[in-house]
DNA sequence: CATGAATGAGAGTTCATTCAT
DNA sequence: GATGAATGAACTCTCATTCAT
């Protein structure tokens, strides 16, 4: 009992051990899922003693939160519509592809994230915030396009942003995580692009 | 899951007990989620002896599968586009509303279904089949509309059906299960209708 | 998880198992003390499975409380002054001897009781109540003797009852539990009697 | 306990660290009890590195023994009858009050001492010796009073000393440590004085 | 069939002590 | 000496499933 476990290590060596645990945790979570992961798996994978885990993390949940937090940061570099500029359809397309790449890179963890989100309220909240921030940025882009006359003004920008994000997100989940269908990825991406652009009425 | 030991009760009394267990299971699953549900909770709720559970179901998973199977039947009475006919936009609209109502009615179980789908392969497969069947029907409708010139022929009917189903499904999940947003339901439904119709290029 | 553990068993067989656990618990507590007792020791001693312990008791504390409660009942059949009547000095003497016998019979558990009382607030309260009830009875006897002119009226009956109970109780504890001194028991009892009688000014 | 590794610091700085650990240990023990005290609590409180604890003390028990040893010294400056002289009743009274004050000052540690005495044999022995030495002094006083004709000669001086010490000690423990009773302290002290004096038959 | 007791392999967490720096 | 990380044996409590009645 160092009493406030999970504190940042004070030495170089401690920092290394902590990183090893984080990396091992991610790998084991990806391999076995959150529920089937034992703290012992993580420590064995990181080649540290069982007890060392609790030197840096108060629980299995805590290490997961941190792994997921890093992943969210990686994922949200690639928003639906990252920046202003001409050719909105091309931008949508590019954003979708970027998100697809990020999703593919992190597909295994995305599966575990969905798992944990179904029973851990704290984590649900974390994910909700990330989603809201991301949707907010997309909504801003849509609203700008509406002011520029590129998107019909009868569309609810905020809601459309959320709904379209759900569309892309869930499609990629079923595709990449649950492997719901073999036919070519390009067909999926093409459809996501087309439907998004047409749903918003963007000139293509 | 239909040939496990003791599944089909032979007597009238046995059939009653089995039904009580199924009803109790659904209520307890809704209340606590799959992971937090104990077999004892189910039997207590059903006012049945602990051991009787295993007379009718080989495991906690088995009773869940059966509860979920019944629910899927209820949900898929309301497909994206239930039947042929004129006014496709109105049909999309009606289908979305019907699905929304069904989802709302079963929201708690939908949450648990998502939960179990994240770790139980057998259940994943069951859900995948339901999804595929449902998407197939939607794809048929879209294809018909394409032959009738109501939907552009450059759209991949099957993929569009899946992607749009993901959009609606996920939006309702975040809305009804995770309560992600306070603003009015009507805004959400309106957006789902509009985006679907425009994505498909249907006349409105 | 039968959810409200520690419930009374519903069958004859369950009642037997529960009794075996209680008896085993007492013996193991006496042998090793509360802190050094493991649930596994108790179940092994009772020849039941580890998990069966938790069918009947929610924790080690709970089984201890019940063991102690039974012991308190046994001990308080022998109060400082059990009943009214003539010859108070003889009554004091008889009460002291009776308490001594009870203490000797239960000496090992008295040691454990003292142990648990030093850290478990719930148990402290239980013991406080027993002590208060016992002191109350002694105080009544002293007050009666005061009304009969056998004890000086300047004595605080209630406080004297508590103080003299402490004297007897603690002396027996040090004697029988901590074995503080070999010389004859009779010397101790004689001293307890004499000091009690003279402290109260009773005719001897 | 004085020849364990690293007990006697060789440098000035080491002596200071050791004192800080001792002081911190006492405070933490008082705050949380022996069982709930972690070595980490002590070092944190002393603002000393975790490992430094083991530079000066071989174990948690060892530091407690030393804290308790100092406390015993403080307590036994105030014996039942500290010195010879006239007016024995007044002396008893004064000794009781002095002991009360000392007890009150150290009440929290007295609680922990009782706790440790219930499971640590080495500490039990230490306390037994202190008690024996103290009782010995009281017994000497009583014997002297017997030779002076102030106390009846049928009293067993040594045993009476022990029994009366138990009475005072236990009453103060229940009063000050377990807070067994709200009514005024003066009532308790008065009763202790009176009963002691009368039990011994001292002229008052 | 019904009942409820019995089972025991885990799993997470603790923390005194040791050790490398 | 001082520092704080590393260790891992314990220990409690859980609960799906089996079994005796």
From TrEMBL, chains A, B, C, D:
Name the species this protein comes from: Actinomadura monticuli
Per the UniProt entry, the signal peptide is none
Keywords of the record, alphabetical order, are: DNA-binding, Transcription, Transcription regulation
Task: Please give the PROSITE patterns that the UniProt record associates with this protein.
Answer: HTH_TETR_2
The taxonomy runs:
Bacteria, Bacillati, Actinomycetota, Actinomycetes, Streptosporangiales
User: Which InterPro entries does this UniProt record tie to the protein?
Assistant: EthR_C, Homeodomain-like_sf, HTH-type_TetR-like_transc_reg, HTH_TetR, Tet_transcr_reg_TetR-rel_C_sf
Name the DNA-binding segment ranges: 38-57
PANTHER family, alphabetically? HTH-TYPE TRANSCRIPTIONAL REGULATOR BETI (PTHR30055:SF234), HTH-TYPE TRANSCRIPTIONAL REGULATOR RUTR (PTHR30055)
Q: Where in the numbering of this chain does the HTH tetR-type domain appear?
A: 15-75
Mind telling me what this protein is named?
TetR/AcrR family transcriptional regulator
Q: Which Pfam families match?
A: EthR_C, TetR_N
């Amino acid at each position: 009992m160092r009493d406030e476990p999970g504190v940042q290590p004070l030495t170089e060596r401690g920092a290394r051990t902590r990183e090893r645990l984080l990396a091992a945790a991610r790998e084991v979570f990806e391999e076995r899922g959150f529920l089937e992961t034992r703290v012992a798996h993580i420590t064995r994978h990181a080649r540290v003693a069982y007890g060392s885990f609790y030197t840096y993390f108060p629980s299995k949940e805590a290490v997961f939160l941190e792994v997921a937090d890093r992943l969210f940061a990686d994922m949200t570099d690639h928003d639906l519509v990252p920046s202003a500029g001409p050719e909105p359809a091309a931008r949508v397309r590019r954003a979708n592809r970027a998100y697809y790449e990020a999703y593919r890179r992190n597909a295994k963890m995305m599966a575990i994230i969905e798992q944990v989100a179904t029973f851990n309220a704290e984590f649900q909240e974390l994910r909700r915030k990330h989603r809201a921030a991301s949707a907010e940025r997309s909504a801003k882009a849509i609203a700008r396009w509406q002011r520029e006359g590129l998107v019909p003004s009868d569309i609810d920008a905020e809601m459309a942003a959320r709904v379209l994000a759900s569309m892309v997100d869930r499609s990629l989940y079923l595709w990449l995580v649950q492997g719901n269908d073999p036919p070519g990825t390009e067909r999926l991406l093409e459809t996501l692009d087309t439907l998004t652009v047409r749903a918003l009425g963007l000139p293509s």
